[in-house]
Design a protein that fits this description.
mainly alpha, 58% helix, 209 residues, 6 helices
């Protein structure tokens, strides 16, 4: 299956996930798909794309490891999408969509970290955010390399904001203390947290069960 279709499916599945184990599982699936896309790029005849593809594959694998301990505790995640990847397709739109997926995963993990009721969940989310940020950094370099190499037109998918679709701005992460260790006060907390991308921006209730 073409990478772009798999990435779109992953974004939809992440937006639809409601329980914490499901969200973490989808985040891990996104990491594994990133690893698979990177591995395909590493087979490119272009030397720059080959090197960056290898870096993306390693970054995706690292992110999957960071999320593995919690994903293992949940139910099976639908799909195994990385194993269904057969071709990259048009590189510009594919990398643009992957960038959006990685950012959405990072934002969702920040939401979970803010509401984490255990240190284990908190640190899993924080480690995942750091790992996803590394993936987005490599993806941004890949998009620039693809533009230089083939004049690939920049494409924003899924209603992405133009400045974000450009692959430039890094994910802003606010470091919070783990549960019970001087976290934000009630006044500092955002009144409600919502999973990015949820239909109609409706409030989503996350539970560990």
């Amino acid at each position: 299956m073409e990478a772009l279709r798999l990435i779109k499916t992953a974004r939809h599945a992440l937006a639809e996930a409601r329980q914490v184990p499901d969200v973490l599982g989808e985040a891990r699936q996104a990491a594994l798909l990133t690893e698979a896309v990177g591995a395909r790029l590493a087979e490119s005849e272009d030397e720059e794309l080959t090197g960056l593809g290898q870096q993306l594959s390693e970054a995706g694998a690292h992110a999957a490891v960071c999320l593995d301990r919690s994903a293992a505790g949940g139910g099976p995640v639908s799909g195994g999408r990385a194993g269904r990847l057969t071709e990259l397709g048009d590189l510009g739109p594919t990398l643009g969509a992957l960038d959006e997926l990685l950012r959405e995963v990072g934002e969702t993990l920040v939401v979970l970290a803010c509401g984490a009721d255990t240190e284990s969940l908190y640190w899993t989310c924080i480690d995942g955010v750091d790992a996803m940020s590394e993936c987005t950094d490599v993806t941004a370099r890949l998009r620039k390399a693809a533009d230089r190499g083939g004049g690939v037109e920049r494409t924003a998918l899924g209603g992405a904001e133009p400045e974000r679709a450009g692959g430039g701005s890094p994910l802003l992460v606010v470091r919070l203390g783990p549960p019970g260790e001087g976290g934000p006060t009630e006044e500092e907390r955002v009144p409600d947290y919502r999973v990015p991308g949820a239909a109609g921006a409706s409030e989503v209730s996350m539970s560990a069960g």
